[in-house]
Design brief:
There is one protein chain. The chain has about 425 residues and is mainly α. About 50% of the residues lie in helices and about 5% in strands. The protein has 18 helices and 9 strands. The strands form 4 sheets. Strands 3-6-7 form a 3-stranded antiparallel β-sheet. It has a two-stranded antiparallel sheet with strand order 1-2. The model has no long low-confidence stretch (mean pLDDT about 95). The structure holds (2R)-3-hydroxy-2-(alpha-D-mannopyranosyloxy)propanoic acid. (2R)-3-hydroxy-2-(alpha-D-mannopyranosyloxy)propanoic acid binds next to helix 2.
């Protein structure tokens, strides 16, 4: 067996180990449930060797869809999890009855996963597949723009850092530190009781505390979730009272691409998108440009409340490449940036540039290299014709997995592994990368 085949087999074994019978947990212990964007990456990997199972993964994601169209970021399985009882989704009349879910969403990668699976299906099955999921996908995009774009400008807002998928990335940390940390949590920090509280944290039983979100931030994330629960996840009730609302750059870049995929599916099926939604979809690529800073020459997330850009750099700045709608000139500029300012480290892409005050090589979304974001960037690079750069990124990513196995993330400085293992999307993305080399 050659090296590539061996790696493929090892990655398949990870997905098998994490298979819960039709859906895949991200990892044992730490993440025992089904997560939204994880399952999309997982389906993208699975389709290469088990198309039926990839279909099942997505079918199971839609078990969690709410009556109002929302796809939740977590559908609970039977095992326990450290935040289990915070959501109590049944408090909303929109939540499904058959399963327990969270009350928030995650990056809208599902159009991508449905499309990539469809592309491998025979003609007739493809049509049936798209027909089956089009109404559900449409309902999700309608929910996003109806509930989360109250100004009708083509940018959706997020109400919790967990919705961004990049939980503790600098723009979110800065905003929650400035506006959201409740007094009792500040007190814990002031009295240096963090280490005591850490003792009751369950996630740090499996991964070193230095590789996870800090205790103060973790408590704040739980407290924001509780506030959302009190409002029964009703956006109209949440907005007037929320302290941190962000038009997240990564999320909106992914959504712009997802909109194109939704529109392509509609066209293939001879369906017409609702007029109001089509208007938003047309606005979205222009709205993304509102997130460009002329001074800093890069993209940022924006506060929904103040309309100000949150000028803390992170890898999200490269995701407009993935949206595919920015100008070639802008794309070339981003590629130049990718090669500099602390992003293109020995094992790129650092989730936060090494020059940032937030950078920590092993701490979650505050510096490490992740395979899923490398996937999004490499897809974007391909779209703009930077094939060699995309190939390079896939190679360095595969090198990490080949050397250390399917860890959750890796230090961008020396490639040392961190987080939980065996982690499903690392395996799934590696499989997709192997099929592109
Ligand atoms: C992380 O997020 C969860 C909450 O959703 C957590 O912090 O426990 C993030 O890395 C997220 O992007 C990912 O989907 C999830 C499961 O892998 O873990």
């Amino acid at each position: 067996m050659d090296g590539q085949q061996k790696l493929f087999e090892a990655c398949k074994a990870v997905l098998k180990q994490n298979d819960q019978g039709g859906w895949t947990r991200p990892a044992p212990n730490l993440y025992p449930h089904q997560w939204l964007w994880d399952s999309c990456f997982i389906a993208i990997g699975l389709r290469h060797y088990n198309l039926r199972r990839a279909q099942k993964e997505l079918e199971n994601l839609f078990r969690g869809q709410w009556k109002n169209g929302m796809l939740p970021n977590i559908i609970y399985g039977k095992d326990r999890y450290y935040g289990d009882n915070i959501w109590d989704s049944k408090r909303s009349a929109d939540a499904p009855h058959q399963v327990q879910t969270s009350g928030i969403t995650q990056p809208p990668l599902v159009a991508e996963a449905l499309t990539k699976v469809a592309d491998l299906l025979p003609k007739r099955e493809r049509r049936a597949w798209l027909k089956r999921y089009y109404p559900k996908l449409l309902a999700y995009h309608e929910w996003l723009y109806r509930e989360r774009d109250p100004h009708g400008e083509g940018l959706v807002l997020l109400v919790h850092p967990w919705e961004s998928g990049l939980d503790n990335s600098p723009p979110w940390i800065r905003e929650i530190r400035q506006n959201q940390t409740p007094f009792w949590i500040q007190l814990i920090h002031l009295l240096k009781l963090d280490t005591l509280v850490e003792l009751i944290r369950q996630d740090t039983r499996y991964v070193a505390a230095t590789e996870r979100t800090s205790t103060v931030e973790q408590l704040t994330l739980l407290s924001i979730a509780r506030r959302l629960r009190r409002k029964r996840y009703n956006t109209k009730k949440i907005l007037p009272h929320a302290h941190v609302l962000i038009e997240d750059l990564a999320f909106n870049s992914i959504l712009v691409r997802a909109n194109q995929q939704l529109a392509a599916i509609a066209q293939e099926l001879n369906e017409t998108l609702p007029g109001w939604l089509w208007e938003r979809i047309k606005k979205a690529p222009h709205a993304l440009e509102l997130l460009w800073s002329e001074t800093e020459q890069q993209y940022f997330s924006r506060s929904f409340t103040t309309f100000e850009l949150i000028t803390e750099p992170s890898l999200a700045t490269f995701l407009p490449l993935y949206s595919g709608t920015i100008s070639k000139h802008r794309a070339a500029h981003l590629v130049e940036l990718l090669g500099s300012r602390g992003y293109y480290t020995q094992f790129p892409v650092a989730s936060v540039p090494t020059t940032s005050r937030y950078f920590q090589p092993h701490r979650y979304w505050q510096g490490p290299t992740w395979l899923n974001t490398n996937w999004l960037i490499s897809e974007g690079l391909e779209r703009y014709g930077f094939h060699q750069k995309a190939q390079q990124l896939r190679q360095t990513s595969l090198e990490l997995v080949g050397r250390h196995g399917c860890y959750e993330y890796f230090s961008p400085l020396d490639g040392s592994p961190a987080g939980i293992k065996p982690f499903s999307w690392t395996a799934a993305v590696a499989i997709d990368f192997l099929h592109q080399t």
